[in-house]
Amino acid sequence: MNEKRNSFSGSLGFVLAAAGSAVGLGNIWRFPYLAAKDGGGLFLAMYIFLALTFGFTLLTTEVAIGRKTKQSPLTAYKKLSKKWGFLGIIACVIPMIILPYYCAIGGWVLKYFITFLGKSGAAAAATDGFFTGFITSQTEPIVLMLIFIAVTSAVIYLGVNKGIESFSKILMPILILLVLGIAVFSITINYTDAAGVTRTGWEGLKIYVIPNFKGMTVKGFFTVLLDAMGQLFYSLSVAMGIMIAYGSYVKDSDNLVKSINQIEIFDTIVAFLAGVMIIPAVFVFQGREGMAASGPSLMFVSLPKVFAEMGSMGRFVGCLFFAMVLFAALTSSISIMEAIVSSLIDRFKWSRAKAVFVELIIVIIGGLAVCFGYNIWYFDMTLPNGTVGQILDVMDYVSNNILMPVVAIGTCILIGWILKPKTVIEEATKNGEKFGREKLYTVMIKYITPVLLLILLLKALGVITFI
What we know:
Blueprint: H1 11-22, H2 25-37, H3 41-69, H4 73-80, H5 85-117, H6 121-125, H7 130-135, H8 140-158, H9 160-188, E1 190-192, E2 198-200, H10 201-209, H11 218-236, H12 242-247, H13 256-290, H14 295-309, H15 312-348, H16 352-372, E3 381-382, E4 388-389, H17 391-418, H18 422-428, H19 438-460
Antiparallel strand pairs: 1-2, 3-4
Helix pairs in contact: 1-9, 1-13, 1-15, 2-11, 2-13, 3-11, 3-13, 3-18, 3-19, 4-5, 5-8, 5-15, 5-16, 5-17, 8-9, 8-15, 8-16, 9-13, 9-15, 10-13, 13-14, 14-15, 15-16, 17-19
């Protein structure tokens, strides 16, 4: 069955869906940690600069490829060049690897949201061993993951307009209001510890936004650069087929350049506000030491302790926070699944229902492996980048640190040197739009972006160790 390709009803639907994909767990738990680790304002400045150059280049390229070919990632590259069809295969494999562990983490978020709904939610979630006890159990994480998968699949089954676009138009405004509300609350709190030391949210905000060059070295500068560049993969949802799939649903009459600029602005603002939500609050209640937490330990261990310290307000704020995180996780998981489902539809001419069912089976099997990775299948593995992890960490490392840079480098070579940058520029300006960063785009896609990506890849492989 050859299903007719749908399209977003307009630019707003596309921007909200793409922004929803960008506003995910990576922004909320990874961005604040990196900002705190990498000198606060220095990381922010580097991130914004890269978003306007490096991120803009990759985002524009992928959306333009999608609209030009009207194909999903699996088939879009082959339509551009038969010899480069392998990039589409890799671009489709990436979301297949990511979605199972993303849904498993979505189940964790759901657990905390439900916990904070209870009367003793903050105190219970802040208990030592609560997070470890939950993820190592053999039943509850699976049940909650399946609920998260079911909601994601239901939205994808409804299609582009009734599912993705409608869901984004409802959820994204709520998400933004929650982010703004929690951010404002975070910078207005203050706390006096047992030693009589008073800390305020404003102090934490200063740590976050004011650059700290103390002890900065050349190596440190490049570390910040690569951290910010790596974060852009998470933030903009590039190099994983999502923006190609979404680009294929953009109408030819829509202003592509304007929409991409709006996505950039939206993503940067939310990423910044994620730090405003978290860093001042953690600083107030746990000092600078608490800001060192990263990844799951930041969201599922440090923050519940912060909410518990807030007294009667902790349960309410924690509930709102994990509702916001749950919404962000859902909008991202929906985009990841759509990249896969659209690929199956375009490649095998399946109906949407069949494609969703097949991917549902795949993600459940992968998700079960992730859940079992914390109990019956637990093991420790040292990865080439020096981190130690198990099944989830291996999947994350392969997809985000290896395959995504490979796809992005290949895309730069294909567009920058084989098809030439005019392929994307002409698509982006086909309705007479002005491409304000045309010269910048050409230089970035041909030279700077692939070199930076190669450095990022070699660092992940452990080849480069001096950065």
